């Protein structure tokens, strides 16, 4: 089979690899049918990652089940499924607590799309082995478009987690989104659908701001801190200065969720945060626990995740099109 391999800054290529085989009765082999780059993939392609190439890239996709072991009960060949980005067993203490990104059964940070915690391959591959199929794979609800939900492996479900539980606890909260890409736009859509009283989206890209306005958000290219302005802030830029802006804009006891990958050090306004009583979470997402709820919201018709898909591109064009700067391209296979 072929797997898309990151080899250098802005450079990926197809490389041949052995077809994956079942290594246990609880495993599955899947074939991605719609795959998309995560915001962190864009950072890797720009040369900002912390793992040296080459390695197989990709950790967001909807796939079709090709083969299952005898013990797999939740999916069958032919099913469309969401493949979560992190490898997790579903049965250890951490997995049962919802901490699926910290599974005790696999090496720390085991994941698709980077050789961290082992070599699990990438989801821009023709075939992928899923080691704990019943725990990991989530059937795609009938009627949901694989292209629209290609990001449910990570960014869409992460966006749900960043804002939905907080809006349930704080109905009608004011939400600030400081972003550069798809995660922040998904948050705008979800926040509006779940009853946020106001959403402000801050992003220098005019095309992104235009889409945020479609989702009912007010927008700004830049923003000075608005003390006591927002109940919930989401930072998805990977820039510490923008994270500082977000936390300085919170109301007393406000909550800030940071979804940016902070590859560079920086300083936060700790005294301001102390005086305001800020809760800040910078977290590697335990996405598997959130995928069913995120899919249910998508299936409700209250949100429009496909609106964030900027391009639908043929799978064969991955080596040339992936390094280009697109908001949220989805690569589709006709043969899977």
From TrEMBL:
Residues 183-297 form the Alcohol dehydrogenase-like C-terminal domain. Residues 24-139 form the Alcohol dehydrogenase-like N-terminal domain. InterPro entries: ADH-like_C, ADH-like_N, GroES-like_sf, NAD(P)-bd_dom_sf. Keywords: Metal-binding, Zinc. Its cofactor is Zn(2+). PANTHER family: ALCOHOL DEHYDROGENASE (ZN-DEPENDENT)-RELATED, ZINC-TYPE ALCOHOL DEHYDROGENASE-LIKE. This is Alcohol dehydrogenase catalytic domain-containing protein. It comes from Streptomyces camelliae.
């Amino acid at each position: 089979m072929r797997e898309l391999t990151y080899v250098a800054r802005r450079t990926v290529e197809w490389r041949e690899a052995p077809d994956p085989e079942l290594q246990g009765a609880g495993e599955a082999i899947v074939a991605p049918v719609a795959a998309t780059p995560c915001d962190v993939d864009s950072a890797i392609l720009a040369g900002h990652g912390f793992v040296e190439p080459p390695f197989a890239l990709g950790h967001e996709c909807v796939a079709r089940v090709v083969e299952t072991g005898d013990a797999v009960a939740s999916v069958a060949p032919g099913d469309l499924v969401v493949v979560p980005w992190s490898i997790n067993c579903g049965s250890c203490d951490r997995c049962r607590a919802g901490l699926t990104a910290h599974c005790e059964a696999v090496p720390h940070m085991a994941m698709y799309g980077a050789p961290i915690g082992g070599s699990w391959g990438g989801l821009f591959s023709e075939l992928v082995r899923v080691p704990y199929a019943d725990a990991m794979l989530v059937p795609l609800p009938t009627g949901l478009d694989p292209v629209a939900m290609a990001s449910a492996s990570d960014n869409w479900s992460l966006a749900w987690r960043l804002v939905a539980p907080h809006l349930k606890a704080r109905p009608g909260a004011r939400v600030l989104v400081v972003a550069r890409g798809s995660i922040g736009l998904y948050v705008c859509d979800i926040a509006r659908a779940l009853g946020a009283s106001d959403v402000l989206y801050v992003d220098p890209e005019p095309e992104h701001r235009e889409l945020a306005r479609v989702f009912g958000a007010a927008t700004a290219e830049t923003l000075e801190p608005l003390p006591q302005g927002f109940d919930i802030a989401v930072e998805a830029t990977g820039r510490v200065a923008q994270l500082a802006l977000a936390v300085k804009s919170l109301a007393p006891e406000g909550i800030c969720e940071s979804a940016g990958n902070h590859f560079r050090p920086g300083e936060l306004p700790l005294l301001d945060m102390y005086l305001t009583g800020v809760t800040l979470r910078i977290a590697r997402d335990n996405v598997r626990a959130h995928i069913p709820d995120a899919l249910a919201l998508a299936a409700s018709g209250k949100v429009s995740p496909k609106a964030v898909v900027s391009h639908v591109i043929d799978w064969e064009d991955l080596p040339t099109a992936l390094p280009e700067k697109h908001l949220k391209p989805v690569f589709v296979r006709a043969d899977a």
